[in-house]
Design brief:
Elements (H helix, E strand, L loop, with lengths): L1 E8 L2 E8 L6 E7 L7 H12 L3 E5 L16 H11 L2 H16 L4 E10 L1 H15 L10 E5 L17 E6 L7 H11 L5 E6 L16 H18 L4
Parallel strand pairs: 3-4, 3-5, 5-6, 6-7, 7-8
Antiparallel strand pairs: 1-2, 2-4
Length: 239
């Protein structure tokens, strides 16, 4: 069952969704949304993580724009891209970092905290991990794990920001938004860190994990989710 919660930020209370595991406690995972918001798909993935034993929270990152529900309709992609263009990136990084701290402070969280992000959220998660390692975030420890699915901001981040936390990145090699040459550059850059793994999927487009989208690739999605689950079990083991 989803609980509706709020997270205190420097601009007020940010709405978020919380899922508890069957035991009621465990490691924490912050799930960061696609450009469509905390969609039904994102909520399904968050619920699956909770079933695996994690305390999961998904913040409404577009809340500063007055948007706290998913964008839908035939023009959802255009709406989502418009929201991202209007978004204050630094504020979004700060809000996501505040969510990490909020989760660490929960009594239900009995181990480390990781971030899992999709598309927009995958790039945001990488920026949050770098922010938490930079020392600019007060009283917040570095991430214990990061999983990024086709992080859309990574082409502009990987050369300037370094993340040493254990991280797993998924990219399709038929991505309509991140071409294969760029994926390979990102892979070469990120894997300079020994705890970083980049997995690629031949024939998979952007958003290949989202089964509500025409780009969904069932085989790649299943393989990537299995790899994600194994990575999280190793980095954020459930007691």
């Amino acid at each position: 069952m989803t609980q509706h919660v709020t997270i205190t930020t420097d601009a007020g209370e940010m709405p978020a969704h919380l899922w508890l595991p069957p035991t009621g406690h465990g490691p924490g995972i912050v799930v960061l949304q696609e450009i469509f918001g905390v969609s039904d798909y994102v909520q399904r993935r968050a619920a699956q993580l909770a079933e695996q034993g994690y305390v999961v929270v998904a913040p409404e990152i577009f809340w500063r724009l007055g948007v706290t529900s998913p964008v839908e309709g035939d023009d959802a992609l255009q709406q989502g891209m418009g929201l991202v263009q209007r978004l204050d990136w630094d504020a979004a990084v700060g809000d996501a970092a505040a969510t990490v701290q909020w989760l660490r402070d929960r009594d239900e969280v009995t181990a480390g905290v990781g971030v899992l992000g999709f598309c927009f959220g995958g790039g945001l998660g990488y920026a949050v991990a770098a922010h938490l390692e930079s020392g600019d975030a007060d009283d917040t420890a570095p991430l214990d794990a990061l999983v990024s699915y086709y992080g859309s901001a990574l082409p502009g981040l990987h050369e300037d920001l370094t993340v040493t936390a254990p991280s797993l990145h998924h990219f399709g090699l038929a991505d309509s938004f991140i071409d294969t040459e760029t994926v390979r550059r990102i892979e070469a850059s990120l894997t300079r860190q020994p705890a970083t793994v980049v997995e690629t999927y031949a024939g998979a487009d952007h958003a290949f994990d989202n089964d509500d989208m025409p780009w969904h690739d069932p085989a790649s999605s299943t393989l990537a989710w299995s790899t994600t689950a194994q990575f999280l079990r190793e980095r954020l083991p459930v007691a």
